[in-house]
Design a protein that fits this description.
By secondary structure, the chain is of the alpha/beta class. Helices cover 55% and strands 14% of the residues. Strands 2-1-3-4-5-6 form a six-stranded parallel beta sheet, with helices on both faces. It is globular and about 50 Å long. InterPro entries: CheY-like_superfamily (IPR011006), NreC/VraR/RcsB-like_REC (IPR058245), Sig_transdc_resp-reg_C-effctor (IPR016032), Sig_transdc_resp-reg_receiver (IPR001789), Tscrpt_reg_LuxR_C (IPR000792), WalR-like (IPR039420). This is LuxR family transcriptional regulator. Keywords: DNA-binding, Phosphoprotein, Transcription, Transcription regulation.
Amino acid sequence: MIRVLVADDEPLIRAGIRMILTSADDIDVVAEARNGREAVETARSTAVDVALLDIQMPELDGLTALAEIGRAAPHVRVLILTTFGERENVLRALGHGGAGFLLKDSAPQELIHAVRAAAAGNAYLSPAATRHVVDTLASPAATARGEEARRRLSALTERELQVLALLGEGLSNADAGARLHMSEATVKTYVSRILTKLDCGNRVQAALLARDAGLEPAGG
């Protein structure tokens, strides 16, 4: 079972999310939080796989709580759920190590899919959030980011670059292994090594670096 923490200051929203998630056979909402501070404490003290955080919460907002959970309970995958789709929020969420970002008007099945993707170690961006990221990558500031990303990627071996390129395409460890004729365990080892070399908190940040650098899979 995927154990989920739902954090939102509105009881009706929490109840609705709980109803959607528990309709899936493999998801269990094991805890709720009414504010960002409570979310951090619950993530630290409760066996949770995925935390679903609203951005607009008292005491600590969702993005600040995301950063604190990353330090206090780094094993917890965090999804940001909000009505606000501004580009800065999307990029801040990913920059703080978020596993994904989706809007509150997302379809119920999309919410379930996002939780499953996060629990599996993959990133999930709603279509709206993806558009914000793509727009930013196409902006003039992307040139400077690309240069910095290529500098950081120069520390990787050829094989590590091949694995990273597939992360940039959103592939799971299993799918990347199949593409590269490697076991899933071997890919996981490569991913850990890549994250260490690039000083990235998670595979989402590494994938964004790959995109900034223009890294593409062989033959891509």
